[in-house]
């Protein structure tokens, strides 16, 4: 029905050319619009290929940077557009009943913890926490005991601050931004200063356990999601209405 | 029934626009907007963005149904997860729509509401041929003598299609939902391109053809 290309190009043997734009189509006439969006169950990427590409991405980002912060920022930027697109793709794949846009922070974080993580890493994130420090009600934590992105990255001693899961943090940030919850997302290895401060802020049962498990999971990473003030403002307004 | 479809980005910037007419029951798929109405449509769509922002946080559904109305133009909305708005303006053919002045448009609203009761006649065999002639006549004469063109247009249009006849009916709602869902699928495919960044204009002729096909299929 709709599987036709504009009639301007005719010869099928080599690339079909659309008249004025100089746009070229693949020789088999199949564009991105002809491919299905639902993937088959087994269509997983090899871990080795991912590790190889990701190592290249890190070393590419490492070129021409002056510090660790800038490197993490670059990794973050590489992930951001992926998050924006994943949001639409994964919601599209949801069955129509549950195809709901996330309207509050909890729904959004659940979507990230379950859908995004399962899609990217084949399992859910390990824990979701809200900062219990009353000064920072805008901070939420997604905790992954063993981030796949860090599996084959060894960080030199002098760069111990670096956590290459900044790339995954960028993906999360993209999802949050896309859904209309602008946020800053950073990745911290638990045990380093930033992660420890936020982790021990409230001393709830969850955070206490997090410190204890630190030895069991040396690579445990906390993704600190800090929402913009307007998000919380809106959250309060919506909460009052309903 | 004439349609104007627009995709609006997160910065209220247009990404894609397309206008078409109904293809159901003998429609030829060509929009019957006058030159003035075409420009007015963009303003109507833009003004309804405010309503979208009001509605979007009260309802998690993507399809927000009919959200706005400007005289005889009805606006349906579909909001994707990443805050891209699909807006469809649909206009029953009875409206003169060209002038946009409150007086004449008010009159045309009256005629459309009164003719709804007359509109239960099944379409006659001759209606298809007369359809293609008379609305184009009314587009030609445009806003000059809007009262007469409204009457003529309204008389024929009632019999043209059930979807066109009442923009608020559940059938219309469902047809528009199907249209939006199909466009959404193609939109997601469009953004899957690694070279596509959010808020970029969608220029692909294949995408346009797909939207046109969805319009033919459902509206």
UniProtKB/TrEMBL annotation, chain A:
Q: Which family does it belong to?
A: Belongs to the TRAPP small subunits family. BET3 subfamily.
What is the species listed in this Swiss-Prot or TrEMBL entry? Pseudoneurospora amorphoporcata
Spans annotated as Disordered: 1-21
What's the stated role of this polypeptide?
A: Plays a key role in the late stages of endoplasmic reticulum to Golgi traffic.
According to UniProt, the name of this protein is Trafficking protein particle complex subunit
| Annotated transmembrane regions | none
User: What's one GO-annotated cellular component?
Assistant: endoplasmic reticulum
- Specify whether Zinc is a keyword of the entry: no
UniProtKB/TrEMBL annotation, chain B:
Residue spans of biased composition, Low complexity class: 96-162
Q: Where is this region: Disordered?
A: 96-170
Q: Which InterPro entries match?
A: Longin-like_dom_sf (IPR011012), Sedlin (IPR006722)
Q: What cellular component GO annotations does this protein have? A: cytoplasm
One protein family per Pfam? Sedlin_N
GO biological process: any one? endoplasmic reticulum to Golgi vesicle-mediated transport
- Annotated protein name in UniProt: Sedlin
């Amino acid at each position: 029905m709709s599987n036709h290309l504009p009639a301007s190009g005719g010869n099928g043997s080599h690339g079909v050319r659309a008249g004025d734009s100089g746009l070229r189509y693949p020789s088999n006439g199949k564009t991105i619009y002809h491919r299905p969006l639902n993937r088959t169950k087994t269509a997983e990427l090899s871990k080795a290929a991912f590790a190889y590409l990701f190592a290249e991405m890190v070393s590419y980002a490492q070129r021409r940077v002056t510090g660790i912060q800038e490197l993490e920022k670059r990794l973050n930027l590489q992930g951001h557009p992926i998050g924006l697109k994943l949001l639409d793709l994964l919601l599209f794949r949801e069955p129509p009943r549950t195809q709901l846009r996330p309207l509050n922070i909890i729904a959004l974080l659940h979507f990230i913890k379950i859908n995004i993580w399962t899609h990217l890493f084949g399992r859910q994130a390990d824990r979701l926490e809200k900062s219990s420090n009353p000064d920072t009600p805008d901070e939420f934590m997604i905790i992954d005991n063993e981030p796949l992105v860090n599996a084959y990255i060894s960080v030199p001693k002098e760069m111990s601050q670096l956590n290459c899961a900044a790339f995954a943090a960028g993906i999360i940030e993209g999802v949050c931004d896309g859904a209309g919850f602008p946020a800053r997302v950073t990745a911290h290895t638990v045990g380093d200063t930033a992660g420890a401060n936020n982790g021990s802020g409230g001393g709830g049962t969850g955070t206490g356990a997090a410190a204890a498990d630190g030895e069991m999971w040396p690579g445990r990473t906390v993704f600190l999601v800090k929402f913009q003030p307007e998000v919380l403002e809106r959250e309060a307004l919506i909460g009052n209405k309903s | 029934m004439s349609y104007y479809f627009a995709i609006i980005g997160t910065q209220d910037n247009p990404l894609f626009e397309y206008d078409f007419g109904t293809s159901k029951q003998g429609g030829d798929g060509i929009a019957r907007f006058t030159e003035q109405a075409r420009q007015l449509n963009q303003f109507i769509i833009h003004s309804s963005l405010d309503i979208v922002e009001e509605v979007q946080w009260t309802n998690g559904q993507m399809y927000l149904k009919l959200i706005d109305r400007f005289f005889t133009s009805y606006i349906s909305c579909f909001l994707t997860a990443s805050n891209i708005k699909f807006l469809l303006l649909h206009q029953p053919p009875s409206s003169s729509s060209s002038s946009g002045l409150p007086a004449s448009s008010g009159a045309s609203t009256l005629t459309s509401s009164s003719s709804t009761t007359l509109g239960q006649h099944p379409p006659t065999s001759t209606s298809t041929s007369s359809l293609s002639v008379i609305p184009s006549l009314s587009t030609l004469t445009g806003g000059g003598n809007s009262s007469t063109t409204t009457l003529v247009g309204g008389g024929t249009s009632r019999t043209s299609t059930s979807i066109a006849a009442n923009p608020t009916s559940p059938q219309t709602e469902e047809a528009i939902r199907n249209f939006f869902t199909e466009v959404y699928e193609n939109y997601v495919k469009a953004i899957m391109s690694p070279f596509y960044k959010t808020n970029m204009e969608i220029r692909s002729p294949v995408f346009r053809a797909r939207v046109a096909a969805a319009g033919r299929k459902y509206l």
